[in-house]
Amino acid sequence: MTSPSQPTSERQVSMVFDLNKCMGCQTCSVACKMLWTGAPGEENQWWCSVNTQPGLGTPKGWESMGGGYDVEGRPVLGKVPTAEDFGGGWQFNHKEVFFGGKGSSVHLAPSERGTGAGKEPTWGPNWDEDQGGGEYPNSYFFYLPRLCNHCTRPVCVEVCPSGAMYKREQDGIVLRDENLCRGSRACMAACPYKKIYFNHVRNVAQHCNMCFPRLENGVAPVCARQCPGRLVFVGMLDDKDGPIHKLVHEWKVALPLHPEYGTEPNIFYIPPLSPHRLNGDLSIDYQTPRIPPAYLESLFGPKVHAALDKMRGELAAVRAGGKSELLDTLIVYKWQQLFGPFTTPPGRVGAVGKEVQP
Amino acid sequence: MSEDAQRDRCNNAWDSVAFGTHCVDCYPNNCPLFVFVKDGKVVYEEAAGVLGTVEAGVPDMNPMGCQKGASWSRQLYGDDRLLYPMRRTGERGEGRWERISWDEALAETADAMLDAIVEVGPAAIVHEVSPEIAVMPAAARFMNILGGTSLDVNASINDFWAGFHQVYGKSAFARSVDDVFHSDCILIWHSNPAYTQIPAFHYMVEARYRGAELVLISPDVNPSHSHVDFHVPVRNGSDSALALAMCQVIVSEGLTDLGFVRSQTDLSLLVRTDTGEFLRSSHVEAGGRDDRFHQADPARGVVPADAGSLLLDFDACLEGSFDVELHGGGRCTVEPLFARLRRQLDTHYTPEIAAPICGAHPDTIRTIARKVARGRTSILVGAGMTKYYHGDLIQRTMLLLLGLTGNWGKKGAGASGWCSAMFDGTTLAIAKVKAGGEAAVELRDSMRMVTESMREQDPTLTEELAASSLWRMMGPGTGMSPPAFFWYWHMGYRDRWNRDAWNDPAMPRKFDEYWNEAVESGWWGDAARPLPQSPPRVLLEIAGNMLRRSRGGKAVVLENLWPQLKKIVAMDYRMSQTALYADIVLPATQHYEKTTFNMPTPWTMFLTMSDAVAEPPGEARSEWEVLAALFRKLAERASERGLEGYADRLGMQRRYDQLWDNYTLSGALIDDETVAADMVASSVALGNLPAGTTLETFRTQGMCRYTNWGISAFGTGQASPFPDGETHVPLRNHVELGHPYPTLTRRAQFLLDHPWYREGGEDLPVHKEPPAMGGVHPFALSSGHSRWSIHSMNMTNPVIMETHRGKPFVLINDADARAKGIDDDALVRIHNDAGEFLVAARTSPTQRPGSLTVYNGFEGFAFPGGKGANEVEPGLVKWLHLVAGYGQLTYTPVEWQPTPSDRCVYVECEPYQGVQPAPLTPAGGDTQAARSALADS
């Protein structure tokens, strides 16, 4: 199905997120925000975002905005998400509240920037946090961190009218040369995951660069390296001895998000288990999963059922006193095992001044 | 940007990097970070990830950190950062200020302090201790040397594990966070570690992958739910009924760990069937002691229970009854406490009886109980539990469940409270009278002389028991006092506490009767202060935030306390709710701008330091330096007024011209660097830290592992060998060596046979419904530690605010919201008999119907109308916590004293359609307006 114009790469850097370890703490998203999106025009950019599923996420309702490839393999231009759809980039009235002499007639509150300046926000990067779905007491949710999928078939690259986007040969990272980008936003329309933002100040689109300058120095991406839940594996997808290859191809427990979009993501997720649901009389229902399997299938495709069966089987095995190489891999006894070849600490490289010696 | 531009942005964003951490009251805390600095400003920070493996086969603790830590530096340069000393020019709380010099600010503060001392005495200068550990040594030392009133903050925020203290005689012990990896069954009970224990959360999932089963017991389907195997939805405050029903299952199904129960608990002690008390030696022999008890040996009958060791060479009876001849004539029947407990469980707490009370199905109760009994079980209980009116009962029933199943003092088992210990340097910095490591050794040796003479007089005392007794004796002398007395006598809580309708209906007499009896009988001794005749005049808030945290909120604080205060001085790095209502605001430095240490705790077993690597903005200065300067200014102004000194509360004379010398040890502790170096020297001398450790050690390796428990009672209270190459498990000395517990009965004590407890029906652990705090209303309002802040820290961090809605919210069940006509994000009015506030709704099916949650930490100024959720919290204290002078129920700083409850407050919640509420009337203060109003009248 690959069209001649489609880019390929020799190797592919990849990530696996174990959603059963994710607590939605936003350390990955905040770490990325701190490192990458603090300049003017980047206020509302969260290249890595974490949302509660089920939910509308960011940009609001992104799953129904379109993009990706159609069944014939042709790029689809969907909606270009607006700043309002993403939300965020707020300003706050600290000065008015603390130094304005208005007492408690004013209170600290966020307001929009840019076109809607001054308006009270009605959406944000994590607006529907912890709302979830279902009915009490069988309500449910889980967290889904999302960043650029650095797809094997990057539709954004294919549709870029100015040739600004490319997929790197050596590691498959999808990048954009801002010197060539003319702000057409075709990439934003085509990306079915809606993880590309627009910078109105520089008139360019921007997205996650997989922290390639860190990777080049042997340092793991900042989202993965700061994750306190220890759930983000980083490595080369073709490294047969590495955990990513095993989780994706051997045990088949790590799956791409929305495989039907056709872009072949290189970010994979171990789908969420969930607590037993409760019957009407509040006794335990051991048969029916709390998160509806159809919902998980809508996110991760039909392979999700086998992946969850595999996880449940391994859990049952260790509870019966057995061993599981899969679960031992997911335990990650040593933190550095998460990062494949990227285990250099960030303070050691690129320093102009003094180095730290841990 | 091109690739090169992005490389430049990533690799050259900083010109130096140093280790850092955030020295706040957060757990597990001590996250080592790299701090990246450019041109004197912090650009960002990142988890250092420098922690090695502790125990082979257990995951390491890396990376440690969270979203707050990853964006901490944004708080340094935000719009709420205080840059210059300021004086209020409008009404209190109005937000009108003028910039003044440090000299003016200190002079005005010193003058107010002198006025207060002259009018009332030093007790009129009040400080509520801040849980910010970076500030605590400076503020505590200042207040000690001044002789002012320091309120015990752990009581104010009620992180008191009253039930743990009642059972174990201590609550300040904790296991290392990695130990949960060893658990077979983990009960996440009234806790939400996905919010509250972000750096350690992975151990729970990793334990699950090792084979553990996880159970969440909570009213709401809280955000930790997606990681567990079972969720047990319980009614708010009914956890004790659930725990007791599980105990009933364990006892009736023969799952009890009998050996553990016999040796470790008081359930093998004999109780009288006539009075319900323990059988004491004073009951059976002339001159017998009141604190000696009995067991029954199947061969020998009734025998004295060993006070010095828990090791038994016989199987003490847990059933049966025995006839005893009483001293002075008469007889009585006694039985093992276990038998009485079993009857109580069988009569009142079968799963079928408990199910409708707690809301769990009887089969679920049995299923979970069997899991608890089958292997190593941990209960992860949060400090929300401590904030229920009957939180002590809930804790006692949880510990009973663990006790019956032999689940503490072992790897992977037990429950932890709060603990700070091991880094003696930080504690001694408050009290030292000489600088240097030798001075620390001298202090330790003099403490040892006391404890050794105690042990000579009573050979049953272990080192821990002697240290515990000494700590309780020293309690009133620590400088802190229980805030309950301040609240009752000076802050208007008396009326609230005496409202019968808000209290437990089983409280037999008026609250005031108990209060008066407790005070008049001298149970609290010198800790009951400041007395009514000693009103407050100056409030020194040093990184504290009384207006945000006080239960009762502005309605209580502004109406009762503020008018009495002649000067309110707030020293902080940012404008807090309290600073906004202060008279003088002093800008303080923050982490990365001064050299300070983190909260020392066994949760991690290592210590981290935050270094001075960034330039403080504006004129911000460190608290230590400011307080030293304040003492100098105090002496200067006193001299100008011809004042030489004053008498402290014990009648001792203190001289103004000696305060600075005493504070700085004649200039030895002059700034943060010298203070931090002295802390390390103390701890090295005492063996807390390895020989040769200096500040440089922290600067080059980012952290340092402890090497012993230290000399404080919180260290010896771990009651465990210092771990080497393994996880830390407290209470092992009791379980493995038979060392007694620091309780009246020397055992984990489930019967409190104090007359008030018998009268209130709580001598044995029972379930009681939460009282109607706030009146009879349809919704139960509770709270919890938020994901987005550490107390109010980070609640104004603009990066963090975008990870939620950027404003406070109340969680309401979606069906409840529909029934009430409340839309998501719409403003609602929450009110009860105590007060009201406005807040935006967040609807979710995860919220239990009939309940509301407002997470803790939002500042009042973030709510429309300026009033936060604490406005509707009556702040009741439980009358039974006024008991003192009964074994472990003796005033103990940070462990035993009356504390306010704020969970399960009853409220109404309605859509709010009105206009923005009228501004609050700022209260009191010597303002221009107040002065002219007085002149007019």
What is the correct CATH architecture of the domain at 86-159 and 459-584 and 622-698 and 706-716 in chain B? 3-Layer(aba) Sandwich
Strand content of chain A: 5-15%
Helix/strand structural class of chain A: alpha+beta
**How many extended strands of chain A?**
14
Instruction: Assign the structural class of chain B, choosing from mainly alpha, mainly beta, alpha/beta, alpha+beta, or little secondary structure.
Output: alpha/beta
What is the average per-residue confidence, as pLDDT of chain B, rounded to a whole number? 94
Helix content of chain B: 25-40%
Rg estimate of chain B, integer Å: 27 Å
Integer average pLDDT of chain A: 94
Largest sheet of chain A: 4 strands, mixed
Widest sheet: strand ordering of chain A: 10-1-12-11
Q: Percentage of helical residues of chain A?
A: 10-25%
Low-confidence stretches of chain B: 918-937
Q: Please state the overall shape of chain B, judged from the principal axes of the Cα atoms.
A: globular
Q: What's the story with the biggest beta sheet of chain B?
A: 8 strands, mixed
CATH class group of the domain at 86-159 and 459-584 and 622-698 and 706-716 in chain B: Alpha Beta
For this entry, what is the oligomeric state of its chains?
heterodimer
Verbal overview:
- The complex is a heterodimer of chains A (358) and B (937).
- Chain A has helices at residues 27-36, 83-86, 94-99, 155-159, 186-190, 212-216, 222-226, 243-250, 293-300, 304-319, 325-331, and strands at residues 13-18, 49-53, 91-92, 110-111, 142-146, 165-167, 174-176, 197-199, 204-206, 232-236, 255-256, 267-270, 276-278, 284-289.
- Chain A has two domains: 13-87 and 124-339, 2-Layer Sandwich (Alpha-Beta Plaits); 89-122, no CATH class.
- Chain A contains eleven helices and 14 strands.
- In chain A, 22% of the residues lie in helices and 15% in strands.
- Chain A has a four-stranded mixed β-sheet. In chain A, strands 2-5 form a two-stranded antiparallel sheet. In chain A, strands 3-4 form a two-stranded antiparallel ribbon.
- The longest helix of chain A is centred in the C-terminal third of the chain and has 16 residues, at 304-319.
- Mean pLDDT of chain A is 94; it is low at 349-358.
- Chain A is of the alpha+beta class and 358 residues long.
- The longest helix of chain B is centred in the middle third of the chain and has 21 residues, at 437-457.
- In chain B, 32% of the residues lie in helices and 15% in strands.
- In chain B, the strands form nine sheets. An eight-stranded mixed β-sheet of chain B has the order 5-4-20-19-18-6-7-17. A six-stranded mixed β-barrel of chain B has the order 27-31-28-30-29-32.
- Chain B has 34 helices and 32 strands.
- Chain B is of the alpha/beta class and 937 residues long.
- In chain B, helix 3 (102-119) packs across helix 25 (623-640), helix 4 runs parallel beside helix 16 and helix 9 (239-252) runs antiparallel to helix 13.
- Among the domains of chain B are: 86-159 and 459-584 and 622-698 and 706-716, 3-Layer(aba) Sandwich (Rossmann fold), CATH 3.40.50.740; 176-277 and 335-415, 3-Layer(aba) Sandwich (Dimethylsulfoxide Reductase, domain 2); 779-911, Barwin-like endoglucanases, CATH 2.40.40.
- At the A-B interface, helix 1, helix 3, helix 6, helix 7 and helix 10 of A face helix 1, strand 1, strand 3, helix 2 and helix 7 of B.
